[in-house]
Amino acid sequence: MIRLAYFSSIAPRRPAFDREAILTASRRNNQQFGITGMLIHHKGDYLQILEGPTEPVLRVFAAIAKDPRHTGVTEIFREPISSLSFPDISMGFYDLDSMGARVDGFEKFLREHFDLGALQPSGALALFDLFRPARPPDAALSAGHPAGAR
To answer: Considering the entire predicted model, what is its pTM?
Structure first.
């Protein structure tokens, strides 16, 4: 199994798309292939973590990289894992434009990592840690992760 995180932006001059329809289809497809993860939106940018069996995760990421609704798709990290961090979430979603200030730790995160597009692996993991269900302090995704590894 692997965990892969990437950053992308909404492609310029693209017609508005139905985010809810895309999330519904993604949840259905991810569940079918044993993929879990989280998608975070902030000011036209997306940060997503996908985890699960290696081949399905890589296929999904390849499809996202080719999707014309995205631009600047950048892999932040890819690492082998032995367990899922989002085991019951086929595709979690948070729109930080509407709720960011209400997420405990998000303002501090923004002060330290202002530009989502320039996130290093440790910063991306720290952001996803804010949204993990029942996240005990000693089980942080970022614990022991080598900063700067891609």
So the answer is: 0.69
